[in-house]
Specification:
mainly alpha, globular
């Protein structure tokens, strides 16, 4: 498998992660733990509304990823958002995370995949 093909596959897989978490877990509220996490971090008063907005923003991220518009900025944005979000979650809500404190390992793996896909595998980075 060449780098270009792997790059395209990873774009779709990364977008799927955002789509599943945004649409199914947050907007459709099929995983109530996400709303509970938001409630613990911010406030239970508006946790459903905030979770819905976060889900919508994750759908925007899907569109941005698939558009390939300013893909380096997109990758950096993903890395920053996932890193900050997971550090906050592990510090405040590790008891309700799917894998507890190990969530940070999966977040780091996701961040690594986003980084490698954009900054190592992207055809824009191949010098002829």
């Amino acid at each position: 498998m060449n780098k270009n093909h792997l790059h395209k596959i990873l774009i779709y897989l990364i977008a799927c992660v955002w789509l599943i978490n945004g649409l199914f877990c947050k907007i459709f509220n099929l995983v109530p733990r996400h709303q509970q996490i938001v409630g613990e971090i911010v406030s239970n008063d508006y946790s459903r509304e905030l979770t819905f907005v976060i889900g919508m923003l994750e759908i925007v991220m899907v569109v941005w990823i698939l558009s390939n518009y300013k893909s380096k900025l997109n990758a950096i944005t993903q890395i920053v958002i996932v890193s900050i979000m997971n550090v906050i979650e592990v510090m405040i809500t590790s008891d309700i995370l799917l894998w507890g404190k190990l969530n940070i390992v999966f977040a780091a793996l996701f961040v690594f995949i986003v980084y490698v896909n954009e900054f190592k595998l992207s055809p824009k980075n191949i010098v002829a």
